[in-house]
Write the C-alpha cells for this entry.
Amino acid sequence: MNAEALARLIRTVPDFPKPGILFRDVTTLIADGPGFAATVALLAEQAQRAGADAIAGIEARGFIFGAAVAARLVLPFVPVRKPGKLPVPVLAVDYALEYGRGTLEIDPGAVGAGQRFVVIDDLIATGGTALAAVELLRIAGGTVEDALFVIDLPDLAGAARLREAGVVVEALLDFPGH
Ligand code: AMP
C-alpha cells in the first residue's frame, strides 16, 4: 500500500478539539485491516533499521502503533503514560502543549542502561510531547536517537526540534497545516 492510499484512510476533522485545529484521526486507518498492517510493517522496518532494542509508545495512540511494532519485532514495549496511571514510583516530565501544559511519566525500572529505544507516536506537531518522552527515557538511562510517526505536520516544525535534540525523525506521511 503506497503513501497516498494510507493518507486516504486518515479522517480529517476540522475544529476538533478546538477551533482552527485540523484533527488527523487515525481511528479510520486502524479500522482498515490492510491499512493498519501496512502502517505497522513500514514502522517496523524503520525501527529495525534504527537498531531498536526496545520500543516506547506515547499514550494513547502511540500505544496502538508502538505495541504492534514491538510485537512484530519481538522487542520490549514501554508505555510513556499520562499522569497517575502507573502503579509504581515514576519519573515525570512537564512540557508545554499548544494551550497549557502536560506531563508524561514512565516506570524507570522498565528502562535498561544504554538500551536503545525508538519512540513511536501517531503524529508529531510541535514536537513537545515526543521531546518529553525522549527526555524521560534518557533520564532513565536509555539511549534515544530515533522517533517514528505515522504523520508529521511539518508546518509546526516539531521534527526540527527533535533533530536539534539529536533525534532522527521519520514519518510515513506529511500533512499541511495545524
Ligand atoms: P505535539 O506535542 O505538539 O507534537 O503534539 C503531538 C501530540 O498531540 C500527539 O500525541 C498527537 O496525537 C496529538 N496531536 C497534535 N496535533 C494533532 C492533530 N492535528 N491531529 C491529531 N492529533 C494531534
In short: Strands lie at 11-14, 22-25, 54-58, 77-80, 91-96, 101-106, 116-124, 143-152, 168-174. Residues 3-174 form a domain with the Rossmann fold fold (CATH 3.40.50.2020). The first helix runs from residue 3 to 8.
